[in-house]
Amino acid sequence: MRRWISLFAFVIATFLLAHTNAVSAAAVTYSLAPKEHASKLEKQVEAWAETLSAQPQFKSWKKATASIVPLGPGTHSWLVTFRLERQPVGYMIVHATAEGGYMLGEYGAGSHPAFDPNTLYSSMVRQGLFTSFAEAIKKPLHLERLYISPVLAVWKYKSAGGETYYLDAWTGEALPISDRLWNEQVSALAAAPISGLSNVSVVSKLSAAKANKAFDPYERLPWLTKSPLSKEQINRLPELLDHFNQIRFTAELFRDTVLFVFPAIGYHRWDEKSIFVAFDSLGARYIQMETLKQEGRFYN
What we know:
Layout: H1 2-18, H2 35-52, E1 65-70, E2 77-84, E3 87-96, E4 102-109, H3 117-126, H4 133-136, E5 142-149, E6 152-158, E7 164-168, H5 179-190, E8 206-211, H6 222-225, H7 231-235, H8 237-242, E9 247-253, E10 258-270, E11 274-280, E12 284-288, H9 289-295, E13 297-299
Antiparallel strand pairs: 1-2, 2-3, 3-4, 4-12, 5-6, 6-7, 8-10, 9-10, 9-13, 10-11, 11-12
Helix pairs in contact: 1-3
């Protein structure tokens, strides 16, 4: 099975390579960043990776190689995937800023990073979208990475029969949504710009880190029985996590047809101010606090 998964990953990569701003196929699996951004972008990614690799969860990044690909049309965002001995060990999502720099949107460690072709293949077979690798390569693959926000990140897949599927970027699971619901949710997010990001767009030094034990977010269902944390409580989230509170983040999307529940297991503080909350989600996933405030609710 591993051999077929790896071959499918190559097929996906080849397809995406042919439909992105590819400038080199030397890395085989992924294209490089666009030429006008490559040097500066790669240096910034290297600086962030060096800082994070000092943390236990990210120590494998010290010897990992990074590949960079653009995310979706016109987003000015990039996916960075880190690999060690050809196996994924983490990722970053990077956004361009109006000032010409780069913002670290989110990042994570583990063998199931965002937009992982191996995970996608396994999930598509499990869901019956096709039954085997042989079937998958018989017809052209119509796949597109779409990253709008941490909770709006999908593979868009158009089947040979004309059906469109939105597959979660981490699990590959098909979301029960249509083009209309996707477009509605994207428009709603665009109409409510995230405040505070300009203050955290440039992070350079990791000044604090907290890592708690993972827990089952469905062991209790506080989003059904309690009120969400207030703004004041959310601003004290690092303190709550320091005291081992089991905090859950929820996001209800697409006319309440999809509910994401993420267990918060720690945080990183950058430059003494910018907070990235850590979630247990097929590995560790760190997301900007300011983004989370706009896209969902926290419960204790």
